[in-house]
Design brief:
The complex is a heterodimer of chains A (284) and B (775). In chain A, 33% of the residues lie in helices and 27% in strands. Chain A is an alpha+beta fold. Chain A folds into three domains: 45 residues, 2-Layer Sandwich (Uridine Diphospho-n-acetylenolpyruvylglucosamine Reductase, domain 2); 113 residues, Uridine Diphospho-n-acetylenolpyruvylglucosamine Reductase, domain 3; 106 residues, CO dehydrogenase flavoprotein, C-terminal domain (Enolase-like, domain 1, 2-Layer Sandwich). In chain A, the strands form four sheets. In chain A, strands 4-5-10-6-7 form a five-stranded antiparallel β-sheet. Chain A has a four-stranded antiparallel β-sheet with strand order 11-12-13-14. In chain A, strands 1-3-2 form a three-stranded parallel β-sheet, covered by helices on one side. In chain A, strand 8 and strand 9 form a beta hairpin. In chain A, helix 10 runs antiparallel to helix 11 and helix 11 runs antiparallel to helix 12. Chain B is 29% helix and 23% strand. Chain B is globular. Chain B has 20 helices and 28 strands. Chain B has three domains: 153 residues, Aldehyde oxidase/xanthine dehydrogenase, molybdopterin binding domain (Aldehyde Oxidoreductase, domain 4); 190 residues, Aldehyde oxidase/xanthine dehydrogenase, a/b hammerhead (Aldehyde Oxidoreductase, domain 3, Alpha-Beta Complex), CATH 3.90.1170.50; 323 residues, Aldehyde oxidase/xanthine dehydrogenase, molybdopterin binding domain (Aldehyde Oxidoreductase, domain 4), CATH 3.30.365.10. In chain B, the strands form seven sheets. Chain B has a seven-stranded mixed β-sheet with strand order 3-5-1-12-9-10-11, sandwiched between helices. Classes of the chains: A alpha+beta (284), B alpha+beta (775). The interface between A and B is medium-sized, with 20 and 33 residues. Bound molecules: flavin-adenine dinucleotide (FAD). Flavin-adenine dinucleotide (FAD) binds next to strand 2, helix 7 and strand 10 of chain A.
Chain lengths: 284, 775
């Protein structure tokens, strides 16, 4: 449990960090995923650049009708943000469901998203929120949608030398209800499956539904068939059941010691139904 | 200072906060890892990645010349060191030569192959990667039943059947009992392998002082004196030239009731390099190289009359031994056989054990050691029998209990239960949980298609281990009490408690006996150079055996104090009370400090009395003690996900007299947590190649605070007649009582689906599969 030798830099500015990253260094955020991998020698970066020492990467603010979250905002900061609780409660609910207190104090949203663990919680919510990620390189800046960002297990569209600088999510109004429902893997705390739901109703009819699913396959995705099945309906219990059944349809589900593929698919449907019901019940 | 003269307060029986806690919860305690010494070197052990392989060659050249590296040792170098011993003698026991480093072959993943010693631990760890071992990988077997099958790979080539030992015990007339039975119920019951998971992993600092011909060994152990005797012999060092210190020990649970290769290996290294050396076990090593617990496959048969009377019990027990015997490996399943009858009045038993070698880390004692497995077995079987006979599980237990008037009660397995009243805790638990009402609620819920279960476990256990003839290394315990010239009291306990609370309870006992305050008393443990020989803390023995040794040492001292009192007061009728000796006639008194001062100043001595105030006692217990109790668990099952929710957990434990209810509650809580771990979450899973699949905390689910239910802890009190304190032991009760109560509850919940038995851990998927089948 001892990492290989590495250098460590605590930069003051984003430019300084990006400069170091361009020459092959690796970003370190909360260290909750990276450090254990280094201790097990599954990762052996030669140079770590600490993003948490860059002050202007840590913020949660509203601008231009959207919510902007800096990469190093911790799970705890998100969970306890009054702004997010009011304008994007799906994210606070999801952050609160991550791991344990220590992990939430240290872990960051940027780290979680960049790491792209197939069982991580945020990606479900960020898919449902149709979040955008601002990615910066030494000489570049681009914005990628959540739908395009997650490529495979632990694989994203981040290029070497690039960091995820900011997460942008929309503001949900009172006609939108959201919910995140998760089955916890008892050892790790990660999601065996997690389903995030946003629904908007107009005169009791679902005008809009977004469903993000994590834990089930190699990366979090939007369950569009299930979304469509809800839209335009005043959903009965049966409609919800039927829509939920679609979230896992055609998915090549993960299987491990903690849950077989069949069980995971079943759990995805169960948690989708619960999340849909709970989201609808939260519309004010 | 003046507390000794004025206090009238007594301490035994009170909820006194643990004196050991402040240093533990403020992070200021000294563990092995905290020990720093000038010139300290660091060792990293290279371990086998294969479960079975021949070592063709080991090339250490690159590692030896790596920066900071002082030396690298392999099995060739350590051939002169004695083998890691099995402490159990049995006819036909096959004991493989357990060298401290592998020589020709490796037998399990994690088997130590080489040790790298460097100036710092980072350099040592880097250099370990540079050692080249050429392995010829061999077929492995990790499952004990597969290991017994014909054609299975031989773990040790000299014993192709993989049988490590067999053991047989008969009591009464089992064939007659089965012939006369109205019903016989049978069940295969697995008690899965568990990782003891002490929060502090193992660790050793060895310091050879060549000029003094002295080896100081700091090790995280439950048994420092036994470690000294054994490791000194392994190293060929005179026992009095070795000092073993167990500093703060961050949990053992039986896993540190052992002598490990690394303890001798670090001694060897330090003697070679003439420098202190430190090795701290990583969590990964703790998973793969520290003993595991349980590992049973049990085949039970119970014969009974139609009215529920149990006539006889048969058990065929397959014990997964692992690749070697550690200190007590073959003994643990024998404890299961001894406990077979549980609390029930049957005189007919047959127990057969087959110990099986597998390419896994050895099994040995883990909290409860053999008794949780036995209790799980019999308590499951009684429920299965009740279901078969359509009887209430509480009623069938009450019908079969050994009754209060039968004690001391000789069991079919040769034990003598000291005292007991088994119906009382069960009735109390039934009352507390509201059993009758719950059964009605259950009937209503079943009509709505909901699954709610009520599970009972009534357990007994063997504690205060134990009379010496019944143990491999002596079952007595020792205590020294010294009253210093200033009147302060120092207790040296051989029991080496390590977090169980005896620094508090022993002080309580001494304070009441001597009439002094708790703050006047210091309890010292865990250093062989300071404390007289002792056995250690395990098997819920420290208070019942070590506390009794202390009690008798205190009586000796009291007698001597009185003599000095009589002399100083010129009286022949004195008594010892509230910190002074009083002349019963004149009412004159001498304080404790005055007496202690006089005993050391020795200007004048009572007749036939030596100066000083010190007494040592070694106490040999005449029997074990047998605590018991009843746990009732109410569960609700989420039929969509298979998740189990514990609605109520009621524990009524009878551990004899209670010295400190706060500490007893803590022991019950911790025990239940580990019982729940086994029942619901934990499992050490090896794949077919002998790789430990659950080898990290991300996959091995130990209970966390937020996973615990509220435990309603209650007691009944049946003192033990075995010791003057009337105590029995409570360190393992929670673990032993817990798992069958949980499983019985879940099986009860699912019984409308025809479920009769489920093996642990009761993962949601396992439950879902049962429930889904019906849908
Ligand atoms: C015990 C435990 C339980 C956990 N339980 C959960 C859980 O229930 N749910 C869950 O979702 N997660 C869980 N996690 C993971 C946790 O949320 C991590 O914090 C998260 O996955 C990574 O965030 P971090 O800030 O710690 O990143 P780090 O570990 O520092 O980095 C992770 C990876 O991302 C890269 N990286 C970090 N920040 C950036 C950036 N801004 N741009 C580009 N690359 C970056 C790093 O180089 C590294 O490769 C758990 C972790 C632990 C240790």
């Amino acid at each position: 449990m001892i990492a290989q030798k590495f250098e460590y830099t605590a930069p003051k500015s984003l430019d300084e960090a990006l400069h170091l990253l361009a020459s092959g260094a690796k970003p370190l955020a909360g260290g909750m995923s990276l450090i254990p991998m280094m201790k097990l020698r599954l990762a052996a970066p030669e140079h770590l650049v600490d993003l948490r020492t860059i002050k202007d990467l840590n913020y949660i603010r509203e601008a231009g009708g959207q919510l902007h979250i800096g990469a190093t905002a911790s799970h705890y900061e998100i969970e306890s943000s009054a702004l997010l609780r009011q304008k994007c409660p799906l994210l606070t609910e999801t952050a609160a469901a991550i791991g344990d207190v220590q992990v939430r104090n240290m872990g960051t949203i940027g780290g979680s998203v960049a790491h792209a663990d197939p069982a991580a919680d945020y990606p479900a919510a960020l898919q449902a929120l149709e979040a955008k990620f601002v990615l910066n390189g030494a000489k570049s800046e681009r914005t990628v949608s959540a739908a395009d960002f997650f490529v495979d297990a632990f694989t994203t569209t981040l290029e070497p030398g690039e960091i995820l600088r900011e997460v942008i999510v929309p503001i949900d109004d009172a006609r939108t209800g959201t919910s995140y429902q998760k089955m916890v893997q008892p050892a790790s705390g990660f999601a065996i499956v997690g389903v995030a739901v946003r629904v908007r109703q107009n005169a009791r009819k679902v005008s809009f539904a977004r469903i993000g699913v994590t834990g089930l396959s190699n990366h979090a995705y939007r369950a569009t068939a299930a979304e469509k099945a809800l839209e335009g309906k005043t959903p009965s219990a049966n409609d919800i059941q039927n829509a939920a059944a679609l979230v896992a349809q055609g998915v090549d589900a993960n299987s491990d010691l903690h849950a077989s593929a069949d069980y995971r698919k079943h759990l995805a449907a169960v948690h989708a139904a619960r999340a849909i019901k709970s989201a609808i019940s939260r519309i004010t | 200072m003046a507390t000794t003269t004025t206090k009238t307060e007594t301490f035994v029986g009170k909820r006194i906060r643990r004196r050991e806690d402040p240093r533990l919860i403020t992070g200021t305690a000294t563990y092995v890892e905290d020990i720093q010494m000038p010139g300290m070197h660091y060792a990293v052990i290279l371990r086998s990645p294969h479960a079975a392989a021949r070592i063709r060659s080991i090339d250490t050249k690159k590692a030896v010349s790596a920066p900071g590296v002082v030396c690298v040792f392999t099995g060739k170098d350590t051939k002169g060191v004695g083998a890691v011993p099995c402490g159990v003698a049995m006819p036909d026991l096959r004991v493989p030569q357990h060298t401290i480093l592998a020589t020709e072959r490796v037998y399990f993943v994690g088997h130590p192959v080489a040790v790298v010693v460097a100036r710092d631990r980072y350099l040592a760890r880097d250099a370990a990667d540079l050692i080249e071992v050429d392995y010829e990988v061999l077929p492995a077997v990790a499952d004990p039943e597969k290991a017994l099958a014909k054609g299975a790979p031989a773990v040790h080539p000299q014993w192709p059947d993989n049988v490590a030992f067999t053991y047989h015990q008969d009591g009464g007339n089992i064939d007659k009992a089965f012939a006369e039975a109205d019903v016989v119920v049978k069940q295969r019951i697995v008690s899965q392998r568990l990782v003891p998971m002490a929060m502090e992993t193992r660790g050793v600092v060895a310091e050879w002082r060549g000029a003094d011909r002295q080896l100081n060994l700091y090790t995280s152990t439950q048994i420092p004196h036994l470690v000294r005797t054994i490791v000194a012999a392994m190293l060929g060092l005179e026992e009095n030239r070795m000092r073993v210190i167990a500093p703060e020990v961050g949990g053992g649970f039986g896993s540190k009731l052992n002598v490990y290769a690394e303890e001798a290996l670090m001694g060897y290294v330090s003697m070679k390099i003439q420098k202190p050396v430190k090795w701290i076990e990583s969590r990964r090593e703790n998973f793969t190289c520290t003993i595991h617990g349980r590992g049973h496959v049990d085949y039970y048969e119970v014969a009974a009359k139609r009215d529920g009377t149990i006539l006889g019990i048969k058990l065929k027990l397959i014990q997964d031994v692992g690749a070697y015997h550690q200190l007590l490996t073959p003994l643990i399943p024998q404890l299961s056989v001894l406990m077979m009858p549980g609390l029930y009045n049957t005189q007919n038993i047959r127990g057969d054990i087959i110990g099986v070698f597998t390419n896994c880390v050895p099994t040995d004692a883990y909290r409860g050691a053999g008794r949780p497995e036995a209790t799980h077995g019999i308590e499951r079987m009684v429920d299965i029998l009740a279901a078969e006979l359509k009887m209430d599980p509480a009623e069938i237990r009450l019908k079969n209990f050994v009754t209060k008037d039968k004690f001391p009660y000789p069991t079919a397995t040769g034990l003598m239960y000291d005292s007991g009243d088994y119906a009382t805790p069960l009735k109390k638990a039934l009352d507390l949980v509201g059993y009758v009402k719950l059964r009605q609620e259950q009937a209503d819920l079943r009509k709505q298609g909901k699954y709610m279960g009520i599970g009972i476990s009534t357990y007994g256990e063997i504690c205060a281990i134990g009379p010496s003839p019944a143990t491999p290394a002596g079952g007595w315990e020792s205590a020294t009490v010294k009253i210093e010239p200033s009147g302060k009291v120092t207790i040296l306990t051989g029991a080496c408690p390590h977090g169980q609370g005896e620094e508090t309870t022993f002080a309580q006992i001494a304070a009441d006996e001597l009439g002094v305050g708790l703050d006047d008393i210091l309890v010292i443990r865990g250093d062989t150079a300071v404390v007289q020989y002792g056995i250690g803390t395990f098997g819920s023995r420290a208070t019942a055996v070590g506390g009794t040794a202390l009690y008798y040492a205190l009586q000796d001292l009291k007698a001597k104090i009185k003599k000095f009192g009589e002399m100083l007061l010129e009286s022949d009728d004195v008594s010892l009370m509230i910190g002074q000796v009083i002349d019963n006639k004149s009412g004159k008194a001498k304080t404790f400090q005055e007496i202690a001062g006089a005993a050391y100043r020795a200007l004048k001595l009572p007749p036939n009395t030596e100066p000083g105030l010190l007494a040592t006692r070694f106490w040999e217990p005449p029997n074990f003690t047998f605590p018991f109790g009843a746990h009732i668990v109410v569960t609700d099952i989420d039929d969509e996900t298979g998740q189990i929710k514990i609605r109520r957990y009621v524990a009524v434990d009878d551990c004899g007299n209670i010295l400190n209810p706060l500490i007893v509650d803590g022991q019950v809580h911790g025990g239940v947590a580990q019982g729940l771990g086994q029942a619901l979450w934990e499992q050490a899973v090896y794949d077919d190649n002998g790789q430990l699949v659950t080898g990290e905390l991300t996959d091995y689910a130990v209970p966390r605070a937020q996973m615990m239910p509220w435990i309603e802890s209650h007691h009944t009190c049946t003192p033990s007649p075995i010791n003057p304190l009337g105590v029995k032991g409570v360190g393992e009760a929670g673990t032993i009582g817990c798992s069958p109560a949980v499983v019985n509850s879940v099986v009860d919940a699912l019984s409308p689906l025809g479920v009769r038995h489920l093996d642990m851990p009761l993962t949601p998927e396992k439950i879902w599969k049962v429930v889904a089948k019906k849908n």
